[in-house]
Design goal:
The chain is α/β, with parallel strands linked by helices and 443 residues long. The protein folds into two domains: 16-161 and 323-380, Periplasmic binding protein-like II (D-Maltodextrin-Binding Protein, domain 2), CATH 3.40.190.10; 165-319 and 410-439, Periplasmic binding protein-like II (D-Maltodextrin-Binding Protein, domain 2, 3-Layer(aba) Sandwich). Helices cover 41% and strands 9% of the residues. A five-stranded mixed β-sheet has the order 2-1-3-8-4, with helices on both faces. A three-stranded antiparallel β-sheet has the order 6-5-7. Helix 10 packs across helix 17 (412-421), helix 11 runs parallel beside helix 12 and helix 17 (412-421) runs antiparallel to helix 18 (427-439). Mean pLDDT is 92; it is low at 1-24.
Length: 443
């Protein structure tokens, strides 16, 4: 455990003035319903340990710690937050639940928590209060917060991060386009044009956490393909999957060399260096450029914008949200204190300053917070505001749980595409191998 994450995105070091401005600047009115107040009486002598993924931009951790100190001052409950590198979170979560000891509040990634539903306390009362007060929950929050096909809440989603298109405005124009096309054929032509002008695109099909699954999922969903059906039956062996694989092969021909060995920070480095014209990412690339001390990088920020990835055959933007999901394990001796901590952190006095400080990196699970001033602070980050307004998840369209988490960890979809774009296998063979791999988990 440490406070220095590795993996999908390099941490963005922002100045103290920027952080303070984001947290304490002009606020938008958050629409709050008049509901009966709710609080939980902490157990005598309660002490809390909180486990959550580490930061990828500095304000995330700084404001989270500040809010935790406020909770400690208000309740007298000693509270410690441990930050874990993103790739290590599933292991830490598994150890805690399987040994029955560890943090009193676990802020896991969405599907991590769903693997241990019988070891997590029912917090439907807290979810009902928050949803009633703050305008209801977005689809992704309902998906991760509740047991699958149940009204019982086991988690409180705190935010979601997604990866739209991040692009150079001047490069897209030089390639002959005024904006990112909404159709797949147009998007492929754009990427071909970017390669022609020496500003190629770059998307990972390596084992880069977050980035590679995000690209693989987009390939699938934009072509109408899916991993499993609603009941968990593997659906990979289909014409739609073959079309997605063929499209991936054509896309690979337009990319910057080396994407098959990228780690989680490679696309950040390549875009910031000016080598890329287009990639997928969270807001961290843009703010690294915007807040750089280097004039050339600040100029590159002015030339950077974001857009939804093409929908293709999808009725909604084909993306999911990497979701922070706060749960209370059954083993904790302080369940009331744990629930009170989560409630406190989600109330507008704490949550909105944290959301604004995150500068678009995390998006709200509760609809009322869509009115936060962060989404009008810079029009270039508006596309991130709807991250959790999506029905998609890594195991779409089947159950959320152990099988979907295992298929993701096993890189089933990523490797299916990678084998073809590198010439290791024919599309039909790779698709069948992926289907067999998925069936190991979906039984």
């Amino acid at each position: 455990m440490n406070n220095h994450p590795i993996g999908r995105r390099a941490a963005v070091a922002l100045g103290a003035g920027l952080i303070a401005g984001a947290a304490t600047g002009a606020r938008a009115a958050i629409p709050v319903a008049n509901v009966p107040p709710l609080s939980f009486t902490p157990e005598p002598g309660a002490r809390l340990r909180v486990l959550r993924p580490a930061k990828y931009i500095d304000p995330d951790e700084q404001l989270f710690n500040e809010n935790t100190r406020k909770f400690q001052a208000a309740t007298g409950i000693e509270t410690r937050v441990d930050y874990v590198n993103w790739p290590d979170m599933p292991v830490q979560v598994g150890v805690a639940f399987n040994t029955g000891q560890g943090a009193d509040v676990i802020i896991a990634f969405g599907e991590n928590a769903q693997q241990f539903t019988d070891k997590i306390r029912d917090i439907s009362d807290l979810a009902g209060y928050l949803g009633g007060k703050y305008g209801g929950w977005y689809d992704a929050a309902l998906l991760y917060g509740r047991k699958y096909k149940s009204t019982q809440w086991i988690g409180i989603p705190m935010g979601g991060s997604t990866g739209p298109a991040v692009y150079s405005i001047s490069a897209v124009k030089a390639a002959g386009f005024d904006a990112i096309p909404r159709d797949l054929d147009g998007f492929l032509r754009l990427c071909q044009g970017l390669k022609r002008i020496g500003k190629p695109c770059g998307f990972a099909l390596s084992h880069a956490p977050g980035d590679a699954p995000g690209y693989a999922n987009w390939l699938m969903w934009s072509h109408g393909a899916r991993l499993v059906d609603d009941d968990g039956k593997v659906m990979l062996d289909s014409p739609a999957t073959l079309r997605a694989i063929e499209y991936a092969r054509q896309m690979q021909e337009t990319m910057i060399p080396g994407t098959m060995s990228w780690d989680g920070a490679s696309n950040n480095r390549a875009f910031i260096a000016g080598d890329l014209g287009l990639t997928q990412n969270g807001v961290s690339i843009y703010f690294a450029l915007k807040n750089s001390t280097d004039a050339a990088q600040r100029a590159r920020a002015a030339d950077t914008d974001h857009a939804e990835m093409p929908h293709g055959l999808s009725p909604k933007v084909p993306q999911t949200a990497l979701t922070l999901n706060a749960v209370v394990p059954t083993y904790t001796r302080y369940p009331n204190a744990a629930k009170e901590y989560i409630r406190f952190m989600m109330e507008q006095e704490q949550y909105d300053p944290w959301l604004r400080a995150c500068l678009g990196y995390w998006s709200q699970p509760l609809k009322a917070y869509s009115a936060s001033a962060v989404w009008t602070s810079d029009p270039k980050i508006k596309v991130y505001s709807s991250a959790m307004d999506t029905p998609y998840h890594d195991g779409w369209s089947g159950p959320v749980g152990a099988a979907s988490a295992a298929a993701l960890a096993d890189w089933v979809l990523v490797d299916m595409f990678a084998r073809v774009v590198t010439g290791q296998q024919a599309a039909a063979d790779s698709m069948r191998d992926a289907a067999r791999a998925a069936r190991r988990w979906y039984r």
